[in-house]
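Worked example (supplementary).
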Amino acid sequence: MGIKILTEHINVPGIETLEVYRKHGGYRSVEKAIKTMTPDEVVEEVKTSGLRGRGGAGFPAGMKWSFLAKPEGIPRYLVCNADESEPGTFKDRVFMEKNPHALVEGMITSSYALGANTSYIYIRGEMMFILRILEKAIAEAYAAGLLGKNILGSGYDLDLHVAPGGGAYICGEETALLESLEGKRGNPRNKPPFPAVKGLFQSPTVVNNVETIASVPWIVNNTGAEYAKIGVGRSTGTKLISASGNINRPGVYEIDLGVPVEEFIYSDEYCGGIWKGKELKAVVPGGSSVPILPKELILKTAAGEDRLMTYESLSDGGFVSGSMLGSGAFIVFDEDQCIVRNTWNYARFYHHESCGQCSPCREGTGWMERVLHRIEHGHGHQQDIDLLVSVAKQIEGNTICPLGDAAAWPVASAIRHFREEFEWHIKHPQEAIAPGAVYREQLAAATV
Amino acid sequence: MAETINAFKFSDKALAEIQRYISHYPEGRQKSALLPALHVAQAENNGWVSPEAMDAIAEILNIQPIEVYEVATFYTMFNLKPVGKHVLEVCRTGPCCLRGADQMIDTLKQKLNIEEGETTADGMFTLKPVECLASCGTGPMLQVRETYYENINSEEAVDQFLEMMRNKEVETPEWAK
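After joint prediction of all chains, the assembly is encoded as:
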């Protein structure tokens, strides 16, 4: 059992209120930062901590902060990305719902570090009930002098607002998010300029994920050096994992980065093993856009080493035999799941969510969906598999934002690791479309 | 446009809520309140956003109507045609499917005798498939207005849910109370 930086008090009754939150040490980082540290000192601590962006990309947060342009007389913004939409990911939702003040505290301390006087939490519109919870917490913080003018008598001013989206996965991409926050369609912007130079309202802006911002108070309270001691190598600190799929204990778990994947799946502290006594078939370890891995490659790397829950270990082997930690959405498939059907489902998702700006993504996602639909429904052609590989390749890297890659990777990896299953669907359409039909030979071979 | 069948006027509480959002943004950036305004309009207009409601928003935000239309048609939460009393937004994405979302959706279709995107003859339910709602650990699930209904993993659970909804009034959003 590791240290709980984010979830230690999450189940304390009343923790959503300022009173209980403060009783458990809440808002200490605001006092410490504002009263005893300069903004640059806070940025330095976050740099030292090695904290990496928890939304999926894993970019070092302190470095992102240090890129923020600081021209005289122009406001700077901190925007929290609470548009959690990557299939499989629900950690931020659970975190904000239970412990809203922890995010508000992180926003205040981080805004101080960046010199922002107005900050926004952009939350997906479907989570309107959490917007209400956050607004209550923010109102309490204003009443206590933790937000507004002259916070804690320091002369530092900060306004914090929550803004709802309208239902669009693409708005999790930071420049699409900024467009949406300005009341526009969520079309990602061309970069450069990057948000650090021209972001919200054409002003320098930092966009960070909920979990990233919520990790800052602990770093300020305990120092970046202490944070960096947790975890393995460049994967420092703890990570919230959203565990879903065919497991006994789905839910959000805070782990020290470095827990072995096998332990995470089978230990009763986490997933509690595969449900209904079934066998593990595959895992998508970082949200729907990262490559799927079959059992033998998720438990051990191609070199035979134990796979660990870290950025580095999960990507060991590149896309030939590895995957990514991504947003920490750990989706588990049992032996009864059909990879073709799941791949079609994901392809439909990305087609639905493509903003339509770039042709390779707009046309390619629909093309992949149609081909996968016909394979799944018993009308596939022998050449369809190579066609899918070719379309995925033509999308990858050829779009303004990473949605194109996110659409291509699940298809390419499913074919890479489960090609026989696709071939079986095409060669034996009658058997394949029977309800509950699943190709089993690969599973049998893997367990020998 | 004013005399069409969908005549629309914001209530005072709705106008106050939109003004509250406008106040969150710098001078001249009132367009930022567009998505919140669309949510407010939808809640005020029986669950959908009419062209007249969009025109009213354009006037409040001092922007062109097309700027509202192009945004309303981009985001999936805004219903641009009349809907039933309760819109069942069912998650159809992979992680929920691993836990039986396809079966939940099929059962709903069968019990309500409608297909996806349709409304029951009595106007009580609209079945609207949506993508991942960040509730993957508690799927299969669906959303109605501002509430998530989770772990609907059997025929009995679907029955119980429908029975409850038939007797439920439409939720009033916080700002309208």
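Two points are worth noting when inspecting this output. The CA atoms of residues 231 and 257 of chain A lie 5 Å apart. The two ends of chain A are 33 Å apart (CA to CA).
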